[in-house]
Design goal:
The complex is a heterodimer of chains A (about 500) and B (about 325). Chain A has 19 helices and 22 strands. Chain A has about 500 residues and is α/β, with parallel strands linked by helices. In chain A, strands 6-7-8-3-9-10 form a 6-stranded mixed β-sheet, with helices on both faces. Chain A has a 6-stranded mixed β-sheet with strand order 16-19-20-13-21-22, sandwiched between helices. Chain A has a 4-stranded antiparallel β-sheet with strand order 2-1-4-5, covered by helices on one side. A two-stranded antiparallel ribbon of chain B has the order 1-2. The chains are: A alpha/beta (about 500), B mainly alpha (about 325).
């Protein structure tokens, strides 16, 4: 750990920065300073504004208000190219590689044009450049053929190539194993000793605290203060990260029934970014899926629905699931509520009626002709029960609010009647508070009828309130299971950030 | 790179095979006269195909090129009239390039600034140019200066000078594309615009320039179309689709970032060869369209085979264990 003297100049300054995306205020009057040679950790829950802040610092996003200064110069008319010219390097969480080009070509493009060697020497130059990092990667390999861990390390190497004065690392270890994490941290400390100002964003508190000099906490886009890493405790940081007022009520949780039959059973399932995962979900149970973004939760859920490739076995109600295409799980009664409502779940220009009944048209049809009256009859009661607020069932669904759109996609499992498992991905994202309870209530009502549900959410309050138990994923694996009587926002956040107490208990359950 | 040679080899083989077969049945095919007319006939499509490669490399299309070429022909019937001579022809020639430049900037503006999909933007431009051509010349009239067409068609032995120039241009362009930093930047932007922007490249400017280059090349193709029709004809040919076909047969990817100028040149020449040969066998011209269509489909499957195989292999490889988390737990 380096201890910069108080006199060291500020290399990166973000002053009173605000940014809104539509109606969502992602950042509100946030100020952060990072001095030369300092490692400054930026921590916060999913959606607290960390990535937005980095986007603004790197010139990729323009702030609505506030000033960015890199190495003493103000970043005007922000663009990544301008920020780089001022001396900023960034390793993106989702990388900046051109996958179809080789490692050498990608490294070459990461250099500022004036520093590039002649093109014909690019490959040799690349080989010499990455040799000290000891990555064991062939420079003539196409990036697309590398593992995610190799890509992630290369992303950091690329950020360092222009010899930046300020280095931003956005979740640089999500795909890394323990050895690689150690290697990366050694690299980061070495850069800090050389005088580089480093902003290190991560949700893994022990990991960032072991290298950081100072820590800034963000919550819901608002800065919660900056602290010396040595003097602040993990407990205090976690308390600052959470603590939103409880604004939603949740439906009552039935008593757990350990005797209920297992409806969904997963064994050794693995796919891109996750696995192997074992899981059993009982009839009537809602299991929460927690974890920092990008740790395989989404891929796991989608693989179960047959939307992403996976190997391993899973079964529903005793029959093996064919997850090669989405059709297999659908026929077996496994329904995915996609988090990408506009892109995947709904037909935005079609009516509420058409969106609700699209999976059950055969049942509503006579002699192959769908009766509009039968359709309306099927959804009328349900729309009232789920409290869908709409002017008419013929209204295009895109004119409804996000919450009401989600309710309509929830009508589908209700209409089908033969649904056994509901896989919900961020069921209340972009949904107003009023509609949230209706969605929770609908999910609970469905499980009371004997359905099993898996809910992936980045909101720990939601998981704690809605679920019977919560499993926590990290780096693609289940690292902890939190039983119903322990559920609470704090408990879930602790598990996600991997604080010491929960990590040791994870050791027991993961073994 | 291995993948890059396949289209060049295939096009060369097809050109030679078709030529040899035709020669075996019609000995006049390889005669100087026919070769010269074949090469001149190929010029407009060859040049516009090089332009189309620029648009495809940044992941776009330009369907306005044929209308632009016709606009150039119509413009030439006003600016390069038979009464002009010598240096007086230069402003008239520049007018054609100016039309190309203006069209290119207009297209690039629609695509980059108004963020229209390139196919929609250039479709709009196509209609505008078509209307303008018809407004200027409602029917084919207005002969073009023969000094100009003679210069354009001048040849050494049976090879037009312009053809030598275009071959050199295509080879240089390929060398630039695969052996220089500028070419690398262009390919990177075509393959992944977001990553390129993050790496500090001005993706917007590169896309802008690619569409301007496409239109300027199309206006130069317009010169050779003028030399062919020699009169202000507002009739639009099908060079837009044929140039896309040539670029793709020559190895360009519809997804952007991949392509070969020389490959497009060979393919454009081959497409012209088919058109040239069919009448010799008393075959109707419709067969040319069908042959070209089938060839494009076959070529696409063939070119993508290595990629598809590699992807299938990767997909199997990707499903590999994620690094263990056990030592994080023991930390």
């Amino acid at each position: 750990m380096s201890t910069p003297g108080p006199a060291r100049p500020v290399a990166l300054s973000l002053a009173h920065v605000s940014k809104a995306f539509g109606a969502v205020q992602a950042l509100h009057d946030v100020s952060v300073e990072c001095r030369e040679g300092e490692i400054h950790a930026l921590v916060g829950e999913n959606g607290s504004g960390k990535s937005t802040l980095l986007g603004i610092a790197s010139g990729f996003l323009a702030p609505d208000e506030g000033v960015v200064e890199i190495a003493g110069a103000r970043l005007r008319r922000p663009s990544p190219a301008r920020a780089r010219r001022l001396g900023l390097g960034i390793a993106y969480q989702d990388y900046s590689h051109v996958l179809d080009l080789t490692v050498a070509e990608n490294l070459y493009l990461a250099l500022p044009p004036k520093d590039r060697p002649p093109h014909r020497r690019a490959e040799r130059w690349a080989k010499e450049t990455i040799a000290p990092f000891e990555l064991g990667i062939a420079v003539d390999a196409t990036i697309g053929t590398l593992s995610l861990a190799e890509r992630q390390l290369l992303e950091v190497v690329k950020a360092l190539l222009p010899r930046p004065k300020v280095l931003l690392l956005d979740e640089p270890t999500t795909a890394l194993g323990p050895d690689a994490v150690g290697k990366l941290q050694a690299l980061v400390l070495e850069q800090a000793r050389a005088g580089v100002a480093i902003v290190y964003v991560s949700h893994r508190l022990p990991e960032v605290l072991s290298v950081a000099d100072r820590v800034t906490v963000l919550r819901d886009g608002v800065g919660q203060g900056t602290f010396d890493a040595e003097s602040v405790s993990e407990e205090k940081l976690i308390a600052l990260m959470i603590g939103r007022p409880l604004e939603v009520a949740f439906p009552d949780r039935p008593a757990p029934d350990a005797e209920a039959e297992v409806l969904l059973s997963v064994s050794g399932l693995r796919g891109e970014r996750f696995g192997p995962v074992d899981l059993a979900v009982r009839k009537g149970e809602i299991v929460g899926l927690a974890g920092a973004e990008g740790n395989g939760q989404v891929q796991f859920l989608r693989a179960l629905a047959g939307v992403e490739r996976a190997t391993g076995t899973s079964s529903c109600d005793g029959r093996e699931l064919d997850t090669r295409t989405p059709l297999g799980p659908l026929r077996a009664g496994v329904v995915l509520l996609s988090g990408d409502r506009r892109g995947e779940a709904l037909f935005p220009v079609l009516s509420v009626r058409a969106n609700a009944t699209v999976q059950v048209l055969r049942r509503l049809a006579r002699l192959g002709v769908v009766g509009r009256r039968r359709e309306r009859g099927a959804i009328r009661g349900l729309a009232a029960r789920l409290r869908v607020r709409m002017a008419s069932p013929e209204q295009p669904i895109q004119s409804l609010s996000g919450g009401n759109q989600q309710k309509v996609s929830l009508m589908r499992p209700f209409l089908r009647g033969d649904v056994k498992v509901i896989l919900a991905e961020e069921p209340t994202q972009g949904v107003d508070v009023g509609a949230r309870f209706d969605i929770y209530e609908a999910l609970r009502a469905k499980t009371r009828e004997g359905v099993a549900a898996v809910v992936k959410s980045s909101d720990p309050i939601e998981l704690a309130g809605l679920c019977d138990r919560v499993i926590v994923m990290s780096r693609g694996r289940i690292v902890e299971e939190i039983p119903g009587d322990e559920l609470g926002e704090r408990r879930i956040v602790e598990a996600i950030v991997g604080s010491k107490r929960t990590v040791s208990s994870a050791h027991g359950s993961a073994a | 790179m291995r993948r890059g040679w396949l289209p060049l080899a295939l096009m060369t083989a097809l050109i030679v095979a078709l030529g040899a077969y035709t020669q075996a049945h019609h000995s006049e095919f390889l005669g100087k006269l026919n070769l010269n007319s074949l090469l001149l006939e190929a010029m407009p499509l060859v040049i516009v195909s090089l332009g189309q490669v620029c648009a495809l490399l940044v992941g776009g299309f330009d369907v306005s090129v044929a209308a632009l070429m016709t606009m150039c022909v119509v413009t030439a019937s006003f600016t390069l009239t038979p009464t002009m001579s010598g240096a007086g022809l230069i402003p008239g020639a520049l007018a054609l390039v100016g039309v190309g430049m203006a069209t290119g900037i207009f297209n690039a503006f629609l695509i980059r600034v108004l963020k229209l999909p390139s196919i929609v933007a250039t479709l709009g431009t196509l209609s505008v140019l078509q209307g303008a051509s018809l407004a200027l010349r409602a029917y084919p009239t207005g002969p073009v200066n023969t000094d100009v067409t003679n210069v354009l068609n001048s040849s050494v032995s049976f090879v037009p000078y312009a053809f030598i120039g275009v071959v050199a241009l295509a080879l240089f362009a390929d060398l630039w594309l695969y052996r220089t930093r500028g070419g690398l930047a262009l390919r990177a932007v075509g393959l992944d615009a977001t990553s390129s922007r993050r790496l500090g490249m001005s993706a917007g400017r590169i896309i802008f320039l690619a569409f301007v280059a496409c239109s300027v090349l199309a206006s130069i193709a317009g010169f050779y179309l003028t030399a062919e029709v020699q009169i202000g004809s507002p009739i639009i040919g099908n060079q837009a689709l044929e140039s896309i076909a040539a670029a793709v047969l020559g190895g360009a990817s519809l997804a952007g970032g991949r392509g070969s100028f020389f490959g497009a040149l060979l393919a454009a020449f081959f497409l012209t060869e088919i058109d040239n040969v069919l009448p010799l066998f008393q075959q109707p011209a419709e067969y040319a369209d069908m042959t070209i269509g089938i060839l494009i489909l076959l070529a696409l499957v063939l070119y993508q085979a290595p990629e598809l195989i590699a992807r299938a292999r990767n997909a199997r490889r990707r499903v590999a264990p994620v690094p263990a988390t056990t030592s994080e737990a023991s930390a």
